[in-house]
């Protein structure tokens, strides 16, 4: 009998430990705040049966449907096991025009990005003034000797005009503002140099996710424009989007991501105002295609299962293609990888092999709502990739200044 109780105790302890582990894991992977549309209640879509229960300090019943109000909800596992308390923010339903149309991106940075170092041959030895001063690849130079720099030419002129005297270099590094004293050296050609390569602009092709006709704000890409060498988000000084015509597609294959090929028309259709982790945003003209307004979904409304995307593989006409949302993640640690997507449409697979570069920002629709955008392709499987919740992009779009 005693052995029986011991076995029972061990099993009971193991079960308790497993339940606690599940509760802790669920607690860590769910956000602390959710958004719901006025008139709806929070429902957690998870592989686990999570229930919601209004907390004691929540609003009175008549206030639950009022946009702008918030209340607390307790999340529980079966058996009443508590997971965590979250805040629910009540919002109005946004109506937007889904994109899918391609655009060309032209942007100039706020300051210049240090993308490389190059030693200077001077006095019979190799020197690198920038490295010796403490400057690193990835730094964003904002001024030299008190004068703002915006272009590669600004940096070259400031260094060349120094005559070898120390130059005060103000820069940003990981959100910190620093100042270094740079002492240029004279190269074999007689020109003073700093020993750095810098970049002041970027250009490429992306896809519009949606357009809000009430504010004339557009959103695209679903991820930031980053420097190709450093991987850092490029600080936006100014930029625009222009019409682009897709001239072809390099299909993707395992280990070799494909890409859209296109040519800029030169006509600007919008002004870039924000380059953020969750996409680019600005003001501009409404897309001609898919002009019908659709509701923008909250993250809690997205479901695993069939969906569609709009993207353009030829000319300027967006088409609708079938995909499958394989997995959903509500975790807040990576706001651009909220969904795992799989392309199922035979036409898209035949033309592009799946997701290719340039399709970032392609809107994802499900049950008549805009639920997100394509962001990344899996390098070893171009039929699959990541998507971002439309809710994450919509919150950032509110920061666009008028």
Q: What can be said about the biggest beta sheet?
A: 6 strands, antiparallel, barrel
Q: How many E-type strands? A: 26
Helix content: 10-25%
Radius of gyration: 26 Å
Return the average pLDDT rounded to an integer: 85
Low-confidence spans = none
Shape: globular
Please report the distance between the alpha carbons of the first and last residues. 77 Å
Total DSSP helices: 5
Q: Provide the structure class.
A: mainly beta
Q: Hey, roughly how much beta strand do the residues contain?
A: over 45%
Strand line-up across the major sheet: 6-15-16-19-18-17
Enzyme class: hydrolase
Keywords: Hydrolase, Signal
Domain PDZ: 85-186
Protein name: SpoIVB peptidase
């Amino acid at each position: 009998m005693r052995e029986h109780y011991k076995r029972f105790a061990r099993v009971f302890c193991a079960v308790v430990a497993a339940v606690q582990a599940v509760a802790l894991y669920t607690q860590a992977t769910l956000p602390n705040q959710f958004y719901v549309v006025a008139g709806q209640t929070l429902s957690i879509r998870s592989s686990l049966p999570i229930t919601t229960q209004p907390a004691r300090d929540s609003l009175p019943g008549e206030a639950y449907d009022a946009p702008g109000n918030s209340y607390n909800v307790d999340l529980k596992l079966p058996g009443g096991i508590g997971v965590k308390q979250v805040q629910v923010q009540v919002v109005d339903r946004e109506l937007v025009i889904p994109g899918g149309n391609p655009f060309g991106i032209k942007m100039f940075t706020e300051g210049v990005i240090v993308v490389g170092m190059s030693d200077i041959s001077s006095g019979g030895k190799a020197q690198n003034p920038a490295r010796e001063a403490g400057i690193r690849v990835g730094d964003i130079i904002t001024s030299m000797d008190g004068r703002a720099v915006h272009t590669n030419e600004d940096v070259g002129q400031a260094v060349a005009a120094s005559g070898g005297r120390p130059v005060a270099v103000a820069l940003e590094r990981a959100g910190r503002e620093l100042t270094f004293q740079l002492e240029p050296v004279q190269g074999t050609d007689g020109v003073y140099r700093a020993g750095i390569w810098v970049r002041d602009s970027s250009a490429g092709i992306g896809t519009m996710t949606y357009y809000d006709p009430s504010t004339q704000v557009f959103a695209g890409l679903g991820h930031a424009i980053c420097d190709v060498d450093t991987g850092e988000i490029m600080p936006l000084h100014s930029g625009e989007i222009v019409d682009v015509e897709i001239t072809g597609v390099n299909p993707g294959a395992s280990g070799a991501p494909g890409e859209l090929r296109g040519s800029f028309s030169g006509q600007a259709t919008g002004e870039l105002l924000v380059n953020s982790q969750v996409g680019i945003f600005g003001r501009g003209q409404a897309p001609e295609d898919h002009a019908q307004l659709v509701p923008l979904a909250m993250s809690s409304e997205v479901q695993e299962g069939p969906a569609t995307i709009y993207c353009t593989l030829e000319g300027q006409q967006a088409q609708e293609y079938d995909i499958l949302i394989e997995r959903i993640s509500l975790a807040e640690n990576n706001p651009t990888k909220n969904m795992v997507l799989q392309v199922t449409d035979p036409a898209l697979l035949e033309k592009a092999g799946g997701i290719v570069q340039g399709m970032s920002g392609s809107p994802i629709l499900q049950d008549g709502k805009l639920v997100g955008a394509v962001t990344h392709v899996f390098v070893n499987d171009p039929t699959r990739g990541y998507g971002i919740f439309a809710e994450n992009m919509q919150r950032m779009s509110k920061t666009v200044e008028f």
